[in-house]
């Protein structure tokens, strides 16, 4: 248990920051899941041979850029580590654009 006044304040601050960081991490995870579901839907559309592939590709690009933006903001705020962000973005890129090497 905290003894000094400053350590009690730090406990409060750490609790507040932990809650904010966890909510931001959760936001990133939900954006990733939405993007992966879009990828799955897009691949099913192309396998069926639908004509609306350009619209789905534009939607995928927009979704990808929003996920990357959220990840970059988390790195900037020191919520996730830089290497973790690079790994997440690389894996998403590979799943989104499988033909690009």
Automatic annotation (TrEMBL):
Keywords recorded for this protein, A-Z: Plastid, Ribonucleoprotein, Ribosomal protein, RNA-binding, rRNA-binding
InterPro entries cross-referenced by the UniProt entry: Ribosomal_bS20 (IPR002583), Ribosomal_bS20_sf (IPR036510)
GO cellular component: cytosol; small ribosomal subunit
Hydrolase listed as a keyword: no
Region (Disordered): 1-55
GO molecular-function terms, A-Z: small ribosomal subunit rRNA binding; structural constituent of ribosome
Transmembrane segments: none
GO biological process, one term: translation
Pfam families: Ribosomal_S20p
Residue spans of biased composition, Basic residues class: 1-18
Ribosomal protein keyword on record: yes
HAMAP family with a match to the protein in the record: Ribosomal_bS20
Family membership noted in the UniProt record: Belongs to the bacterial ribosomal protein bS20 family.
UniProt-listed NCBIfam families: S20
Protein name: Ribosomal protein S20
Originating organism: Alaria marginata
Lineage of the organism: Eukaryota, Sar, Stramenopiles, Ochrophyta, PX clade
């Amino acid at each position: 248990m905290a003894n000094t006044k400053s350590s009690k304040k730090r406990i409060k601050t750490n609790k507040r920051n932990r809650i904010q960081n966890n909510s931001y991490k959760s936001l990133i995870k939900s954006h990733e899941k939405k993007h992966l579901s879009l990828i799955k839907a897009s691949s099913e559309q192309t396998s069926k041979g639908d004509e609306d592939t350009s619209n789905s590709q534009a939607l995928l690009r927009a979704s990808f850029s929003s996920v990357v933006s959220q990840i970059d903001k988390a790195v900037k705020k020191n919520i996730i580590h830089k290497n973790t962000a690079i790994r997440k973005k690389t894996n998403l890129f590979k799943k989104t654009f499988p033909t690009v090497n």
